[in-house]
């Protein structure tokens, strides 16, 4: 037989040496699918991909970015002196603009005009070499010809910028050298913000994008600034003993606080999903057709709504609308567990179905989250009947971070944090270290279930072929075992096989068994594909979302609290030295030092408040994430229940067939 009529269904063995399943190192090395070394990883649109892209309103600027190939020597000299001094635009004002004003090269009006240009054209952060040099170019142009320090002139003269004044460079070099001699930060200053520290490497100077998945970075979330808080408030009585002794009343308050957080989040899928999605039959677009998705739900959305039934709603959205929604959530809620999107295209033939299911999980995870469920943009996404692109042009959308204008609750600082900080920070670090390994194991489980489901399909196909060939055999066996009732000769009658009909009847029963079992297998395969696998992938989505939160917290929660504290102490020391003797002629320097100290203390208060808000937000998300452990129970309870029903049906069919064949199929004449 030259070729087999059967599809053997050979599959790549994931435990073979080439698949890498038995490697000691974790398979999951990056949450970004494009960087994944294995085909078994999630191929989801993640925050790392979106946040490494320019914002929508800035893309027209980023596409026109021009690198400075001919950097003036004075610019490089100044940056070498201030590399570890300047980390924010406020530092740039202090070390560059204020000194130029003192030397009467610039006026305060010119300074404010240049700063407006910096913000309008997104020349921040100043730690990026190209931004630093372009701001210096604006300054040099303004000094060279007053009024010419604008962005258009800068781009026109980008490769032929004027030098900075030598007297200014000498002043900066002298002050930096004096600070180093007096034990100041100097070149050994510690930059606590890992995102900005990373910007000082050669990768940034080569104008490459930031790597969101660097290993070994210290997560700023793990830094406890309680001591700085008490120091700024003048509270020196806090001690470790106070943290160990928790008031019983506070204990009940903390327990209720945590219980309330967990009660708000119920991730179980159960039998019904609140939001349903299907592909619209008609495609839109003149040249390039795109698929629309019809979203239906009965949720009651809006302030005060409980999320229960609120009337049938239907909206039509396209994939780009989902991508915009995810980008908005990442900008506004960077410190929350945000689900990822499926990629725009899959590599297999079922990519449309996979993408639709991924979008379905994305929406249902959003509406289950207590914060996203109340987010006006999410509500508009699910309720506005018009085209979303048209609605966005008319709507006033606030992209600012959720913490804007908020102040941390004193109860969290004084009661909750002292009790939970040590355990929370330890658990956060432990989860951050092991989340990739957990994703690796769960991904392999998903693959095994997918392989099982494919084998079920192959088994159903084999059963159908079994029935087909068995029927062909029944039609032909009578030619070998003749059965002719019309024969009149007694000798011929001896050649007749009277039992072949009974045997063929038994074969018919066997065929019916395989037909019925094939249908049982198809039904079971469908259940696995639409229920079990979706629940497995739903939990995997949550794991990837937590991994992305860990990555964002490393890169976005950095602060300059320690650096500001050092600078305040340095300025206070200088202030004492200046005011210790005669102050005649030193009024300008005294006022400058006093104002710098005030500004830095105000900045510390703001950064401490932001740091506390980030810690509180991450703590809530971590506590809510604990509810996802029940997704593990849900999927395997469903799996075992399905296996039991499947085996029951097959066992019933087998018992009926066995009883029928034993009684009816002859074994002898």
Provide a descriptive summary of the structure in words.
- With 669 residues, the protein is mostly helical.
- The chain is built from 23 helices and three strands.
- Among the domains are: 53-211, no CATH class; 275-402, 2-Layer Sandwich (PX Domain); 450-554 and 629-664, no CATH class.
- A three-stranded antiparallel sheet has the order 1-2-3.
- It starts with 46 loop residues before the first helix and ends in a 5-residue tail after the last helix.
- The model is unreliable at 1-43, 55-64, 183-216 and 236-241 (pLDDT under 50).
Looking at the structure, what is the overall shape?
elongated
Count of DSSP E strands? 3
Estimate the mean pLDDT confidence: 79
- Following the backbone from N to C, one meets helices and strands in this order, namely HHHHHHHHHHHHHEEEHHHHHHHHHH
Keywords: Cytoplasm, Membrane, Protein transport, Transport
GO molecular function: phosphatidylinositol-3-phosphate binding
Pfam families: PX, Snx8_BAR_dom
Membrane topology: Peripheral membrane protein
Fold topology:
Blueprint: H1 47-51, H2 59-62, H3 73-82, H4 89-102, H5 108-120, H6 129-144, H7 151-156, H8 166-181, H9 194-199, H10 202-205, H11 226-233, H12 240-244, H13 248-263, E1 275-279, E2 292-299, E3 309-318, H14 319-332, H15 351-368, H16 376-383, H17 388-394, H18 410-480, H19 490-495, H20 500-556, H21 561-580, H22 587-625, H23 629-664
Antiparallel strand pairs: 1-2, 2-3
Helix pairs in contact: 3-8, 5-6, 13-22, 18-20, 18-22, 20-23, 21-22
């Amino acid at each position: 037989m030259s070729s087999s009529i059967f599809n053997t269904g050979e599959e790549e063995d994931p435990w073979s040496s080439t698949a890498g399943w038995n490697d000691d190192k974790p398979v999951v090395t990056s949450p970004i699918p494009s960087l994944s070394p294995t085909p078994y990883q999630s191929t989801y649109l993640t925050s790392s991909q979106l946040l490494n892209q320019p914002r929508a309103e800035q893309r027209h600027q980023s596409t026109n970015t021009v690198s400075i190939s001919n950097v003036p020597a004075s610019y490089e000299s100044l940056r070498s002196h201030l590399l570890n001094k300047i980390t924010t635009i406020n530092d740039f004002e202090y070390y560059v603009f204020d000194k130029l004003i003192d030397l009467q090269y610039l006026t305060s009006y010119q300074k404010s005009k240049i700063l407006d240009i910096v913000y309008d054209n997104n020349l921040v952060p100043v730690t990026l070499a190209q931004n630093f040099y372009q701001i210096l170019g604006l300054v040099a142009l303004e000094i060279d010809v007053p009024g010419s320090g604008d962005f258009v002139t800068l781009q026109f003269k980008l490769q032929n910028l004027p030098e900075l004044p030598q007297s200014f460079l000498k002043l900066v070099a002298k002050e930096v050298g004096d600070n180093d001699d007096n034990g100041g930060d100097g070149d050994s200053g510690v930059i606590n913000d890992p995102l900005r520290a990373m910007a000082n490497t050669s990768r940034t100077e080569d104008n490459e994008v930031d790597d969101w998945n660097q290993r070994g970075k210290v997560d700023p979330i793990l830094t406890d600034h309680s001591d700085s808080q008490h120091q700024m408030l003048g509270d020196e009585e806090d001690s470790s003993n106070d943290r160990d002794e928790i008031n019983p009343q506070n204990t009940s308050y903390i327990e209720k606080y945590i219980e309330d957080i967990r009660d708000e989040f119920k991730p179980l899928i159960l039998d019904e999903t609140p939001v349903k999605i299907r592909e619209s039959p008609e495609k839109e677009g003149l040249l390039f057709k795109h698929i629309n998705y019809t979203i239906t739900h009965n949720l009651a959305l809006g302030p005060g709504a409980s999320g229960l039934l609120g009337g049938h709603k239907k909206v039509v959205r396209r994939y780009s609308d989902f991508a915009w929604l995810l980008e908005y959530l990442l900008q506004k809620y960077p410190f929350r567990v945000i689900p990822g999107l499926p990629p725009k295209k899959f590599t297999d033939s079922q990519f449309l179905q996979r993408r639709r299911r991924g979008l379905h999980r994305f929406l249902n995870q959003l509406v289950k989250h207590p914060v996203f469920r109340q987010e006006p943009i999410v509500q508009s996404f699910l309720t506005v009947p018009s085209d979303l692109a048209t609605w966005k042009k008319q709507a006033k959308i606030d992209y600012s971070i959720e913490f804007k204008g908020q102040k941390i609750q004193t109860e969290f600082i004084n009661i909750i944090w002292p009790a939970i900080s040590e355990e929370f920070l330890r658990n956060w670090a432990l989860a951050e270290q092991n989340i990739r390994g957990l994703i690796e194991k769960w991904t392999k489980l998903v693959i095994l279930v997918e392989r099982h489901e494919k084998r079920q399909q192959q088994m159903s196909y084999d059963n159908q072929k079994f029935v087909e060939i068995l029927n062909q055999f029944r039609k032909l066996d009578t030619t070998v075992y003749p059965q002719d009732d019309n024969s009149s000769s007694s000798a011929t009658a001896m050649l007749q096989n009277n039992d072949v009909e009974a045997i063929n009847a038994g074969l018919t029963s066997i065929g019916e068994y395989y037909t019925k079992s094939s249908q049982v297998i198809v039904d079971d395969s469908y259940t696995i594909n639409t229920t079990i696998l979706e629940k497995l992938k739903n939990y995997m989505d949550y794991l990837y979302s937590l991994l992305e939160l860990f990555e964002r917290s490393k890169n976005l929660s950095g602060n300059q609290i320690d650096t500001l504290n050092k600078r305040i102490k340095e300025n206070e020391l200088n202030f004492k030295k200046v005011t210790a003797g005669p102050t005649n002629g030193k009024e300008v320097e005294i006022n400058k030092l006093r104002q710098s100290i005030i500004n830095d203390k105000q900045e510390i208060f703001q950064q401490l408040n932001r740091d506390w808000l980030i810690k509180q937000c991450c703590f809530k998300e971590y506590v809510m994430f604990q509810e996802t452990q029940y997704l593990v129970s849900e999927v395997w309870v469903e799996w075992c229940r399905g296996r039991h029903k499947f085996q029951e049906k097959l066992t019933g069919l087998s018992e009926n067939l066995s009883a029928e064949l034993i009684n009816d199929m002859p074994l002898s004449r």
